[in-house]
Amino acid sequence: MISNFQKAHILKILSLLETHKARPLDLILNKYFRANKTLGSKERKIIAEVIYGMVRWKGRLDAELDSNPSWESRLALLESLDWDFSNGRAPLEDHEKVSFPKELFDKLVASLGKEKALAFCKATNEPGPTTVRVNLLKTTREALFHGWKERYDVSVCKESERGITFHEKINFTTLTEFQKGLFEIQDEASQLVSYMVGAKPGDSVLDFCAGAGGKTLGFADRLQKKGQIYLYDVREKSLASAKLRLKRAGIQNAQIVTTVKDLARLKNRMHWIIIDVPCSGSGTWRRNPDQKWKFTEEMLQGLIKTQQEIMREALAYLHPQGSLVYATCSVFPEENEEQVALFLSTYGLKEQSSFKSFPKPKGMDGFFASVLTRS
User: Fold this and answer.
1) Which residue has the higher pLDDT, 199 or 21?
2) What is the number of structural domains in the chain?
């Protein structure tokens, strides 16, 4: 049962989501909780779970309401329904059952087939697992897992040899192991993509869309602190965050590149490049459920053009015998296989290997990666 106190906060946050449509839900929540420090951890957990559930199932709730749905009416309806909607009305259209915009659902069916599209939507409406990646520069998975298994509900990942999954909510930033840089939070599929950068000690590597450095943190141990990693991104705030994370992880052979002049010095020199390009993020929508309501075909086409521009720019820094990893967290073929096919024909590249994961309940997020070399 949701208390009136909790309802008031829930509706305030949902109102902020409507007012600031461009801001991701997780950022709005984090900012709200920082501004309302009197809310205890238990209250924050309940409020966050209800809000994420309502955003995921907004379309399903609206299908139960006659007209002019509001967050107040959705919340009132939610209290009279079970989350499985077993006592809801019927019949419903397929997109209503899985709480997706009709235009987006139709696109998913066209791209993936109906069965896979329905599976994707259902997985997207469930919370994703919480997985961490062990920093092999400082410890081993065995050591961390042995220390945690008596305290927490954890299990080792099946695919990533550096991954551990937590089956309970933990405030990781308070853990001594986190503060010492022994691990980072990273989905198992994202870990596997990072490790497609097959760099060896002494290599030069460019993380071309580095963001906050997640992929660099994932492959840095391959270089064994030898060679050089360069991180570049147009988002300076993200690079500032990357700098702090690199320091905590003990990665000393990495440097932030912020100017075009410094970047120009890297042309034709990189043994490995990874471009984790801006994309729809569809493979991670279960962690950002508000994004499915913001998706448009126009937005996707803009991202596809950006991906092509980034690829063209990144190739200038590739050593003649170097390798490039093109990566997305998308399930759309237009951002994945179709882009790679275009790159192969346009630039005379060859695909050496590829990786693809699909969101499944309690499983990995949806990621795609392709390792490309010059023919």
Assistant:
1) 199
2) 3
User: 180 with 198, same domain?
Assistant: no
- pLDDT tens digit sequence for 80-125: 776 666 666 667 899 999 999 999 999 999 999 999 999 999 999 9
* Ordered DSSP codes for 240-261: HHHHHHHHHHT--SEEEE-SHH
Q: Where are the alpha helices (DSSP H) in the chain?
A: 4-19, 25-35, 41-56, 58-64, 71-78, 94-97, 102-112, 114-124, 141-148, 176-179, 188-194, 214-219, 236-249, 260-264, 297-314, 337-347
What is the residue range of 142's domain?
A: 130-185
3-state SS class at 99: coil
Helix (H) or strand (E) holding 230: strand 228-232
Q: What's the order of all strands across the beta sheet hosting 163-166?
A: 154-156, 163-166, 130-134, 183-185
In the block, residue with structure tokens 């990273």? 186
Residue 175: predicted pLDDT: 96
pLDDT at residue 86, as a whole number? 66
Evaluate whether 60 touches 96 at the Cβ level (below 8 Å): yes
Token readout for 281 is 């993020």
Cβ(286)–Cβ(126) under 8 Å?
Answer: yes
Are 244 and 153 in the same domain?
Answer: no
pLDDT by residue (tens digit) across 181-229? 999 999 999 999 999 999 999 999 999 999 999 999 999 999 999 999 9
CATH number of the domain bearing residue 181: 3.30.70.1170
Distances in whole angstroms, Cα of residue 79 to Cα of each of 52, 76, 209, 291, 340: 15, 5, 43, 25, 47
Are 202 and 273 contained in the same domain? yes
Residues 216 and 350 in one domain: yes
Instruction: Give the closest residue to 154 by CA, choosing from 140, 170, 139.
Output: 170
**Is residue 284 within 8 Å of 254, Cβ to Cβ?**
no
SS3 call for 326: strand
Rg (CA), the chain: 22
